[in-house]
Write a structure and sequence with these properties.
Pfam family, one: QWRF
Largest sheet: none
Shape: rod-shaped
Strand content: under 5%
Structural class: mainly alpha
Family: Belongs to the QWRF family.
Order of helices and strands: HHH
Number of domains: 1
Distance between the termini: 60 Å
Helix content: over 70%
Number of helices: 3
InterPro entries: QWRF
Number of strands: 0
Length: about 130
């Protein structure tokens, strides 16, 4: 459960970072005039593309720093999946065993009743 809680923290942090990166890239590229034969200063285009590259490099560094955590989390998620599969199988076995126990209990009660009737004779046959 601890790893799932940690994943929740990473997930929100990752989502927030990704949203910010998308917004930064949008703002960099939306400043470029690309329709109706528009012209732009080379300096402005260079600045916009440079900003986009800086954002992408920052994202790359962030992804590289999170990669070991993601690999570790992936390993734990895989182990958790195996445990869940084992628990599911054990739950099915438990259900089957409980059904068997219930059937044996009914049979035991029936046999006890028959035994008491045979042992007690006619006394138990009358109300």
């Amino acid at each position: 459960m601890i790893y799932l809680e940690e994943w929740f923290n990473f997930e929100s942090e990752y989502s927030c970072s990704l949203s910010r990166a998308i917004e930064a890239l949008k703002s960099c590229t939306l400043h470029l005039p690309v329709v109706n034969g528009a012209h732009a200063e080379m300096k402005d285009i260079k600045h916009a593309v440079g900003s986009a590259i800086d954002v992408m490099q920052a994202m790359g560094a962030s992804v590289c720093s999170l990669l070991p955590k993601v690999e570790s989390t992936s390993s734990f998620a895989s182990q958790l999946s195996e445990v869940v599969a084992q628990e599911r199988e054990l739950m099915h076995q438990s259900r089957d065993l409980l059904s068997t126990v219930a059937a044996l209990h009914v049979k035991q009660c029936s046999l006890r009743g028959q035994f008491l009737q045979l042992k007690g004779g006619p006394r138990f046959a009358q109300p």
